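Honest question from a wet-lab person: if I give you the sequences of every part of a complex, can you actually get the arrangement of the whole thing, not just the pieces? Trying it with mine:
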Amino acid sequence: MNGFAAFALKEVREIVRTWRIWVLPGIVLFFALTGPILARYTPQILGAVVSDQIPGLNLPTPTSADAYAQWMKNLSQIVLVTVIISYGGLVSGEVRSGTAALVLTKPLSRTAFVVAKAVVHGVFLVAAVLAGTLVTWGVTAVFFDGAPAGPLWSGTLVWLVFGVLFVALMALLSVVLRSAAGAAGIGIAAYAILSAAAIWKPLGRYSPAALTPQAASLAAGQEADVLWPVLTGLILAAALVAAAALFFRQQDL
Amino acid sequence: MSAAIETYRLSKVYGRTRALDDVDLRVEEGSVFGFLGPNGAGKTTMLRLLTGLARPTSGSARILGQDVAAVGNSVRTEMGFLPDVPGFYDWMTGEEFLRFAAGLFGLEGGELHKRLGLLLGLAGLEGVRTQIGGYSRGMKQRLGVAQALINAPRLLLLDEPTGALDPLGRKDVLDMIASLRGRTTVFFSTHILGDVERVCDTVAVLNAGHIVAQGPIDELRSRYGQQKVVLEVTGGAEGLRADLEAAPWATRVASGSNGTLEVTITDLAEARLQIPALVAARHLGLSRLEAGEMGLEEVFVELVGEKAQ
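Yes, you can. This is the full assembly:
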């Protein structure tokens, strides 16, 4: 086993044995479970509450597309914010606690340190979201008449590129900023800017800013051209991890 | 003899503070080297530069023949390091951390098993199943020493290794350091003079970022020992003490054991002439007059002055 593999294995064990195993998977699974149920019964609840004020209100019958839309909305908001907050101290946490100084004076390069973290936590996010998708797919099948696989899984896979991009961004921010809260703040600002940037057509078509709207379109069963956003998203994620490694190599610890 | 550590005009500046200033240092391979200095002298900065955790502002450092600026995994494979406050993963047990550290060196199988047993014993952590988060500071320090030895390093860098230990733990660590003499170069920073006197063969004294003395510990003692005389007189020595304190060639007069006076001097020849005259003027008998040997503590105080107090 080389230094990279030993450190990556440490990251996996750290996920399993600390709060990390509960927070992200817990949030993903909670919304995977409740999303379809909420989508199924929201019109009925709404109807019961406002029927006195608005007589004759006719709410449409919910479909699996509503459950999928709920899932995509939860991924793009709650899950993404969870990723940003929980990874604000991905690297800086180890620098502050002194563990980085101990492991980086052993045969583990700073590049391997950063890349191992980004890869392991990227895979962790993918695993948690795929498990959540499986759950939401099953619950949708129970509460609705049919749950087509294609829209849900294609939309989720496209969103995962966006999620992985933010893991990479947080890796960079946690190298550049020693404050986890500061990194999370800038991460949330980056998310807001990227969301707004999708309004501009070139960015909304070719850049990673298009990933969330395109993922939502796919989940709704619509056509979407995702090749460029996926490609630029993956390239940008790799570039962010490379930049994180480069910055980290220059830093005094 | 080749050098395990060699620095040339090594400097580190933080803002307006010059933490290290043109430090030239040579540590011979196989020696146990004490890096002495008061708090804030720059000892930890020096170790951070030597381990590649920080970059020098100017100058260069070589570890085991390789430039630290280009230091790669090949040098780190032969090096062990204990920071002043070692950081561990609190969710691991001591044994798990040692296994993890061994994994970074690619150690496995029988060799790993043998070293684990040895080092857990050294750290007094055999059978301890508590997570590191529940360890006392002393336990963490002992684990820190153990992890620094996991790869049987050629060069061991220790930053204040005995600072958090009780007397027994301190003795164990110092015995361990002494046992490595000749096989492993040990470079350890400390402000505890007793530790240095006990195990080091060579020493450098750092003060305010400057090396103020460097050499074999016996040479350093004798160099400064020539500037001290011990005298014993018959009768009351209080009046004589006042005379000695007034002498221009005496910098310090202290009462030693059995009524002796220990005089730190600037001019030995002058002292040898004047002291008998002063004794005679007080109508006292001179029982003993000899060159004394300065302890390392006195050398240290002499070199770093008030800052060391």
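Two things worth pointing out. The interface with chain A takes residues 48, 51-55, 72-73, 76-77, 79, 81, 83, 85-89, 91, 100-101, 103-106, 108, 144, 147, 151 of chain B (CB under 8 Å). Chain B has two domains: 3-216, 228-293.
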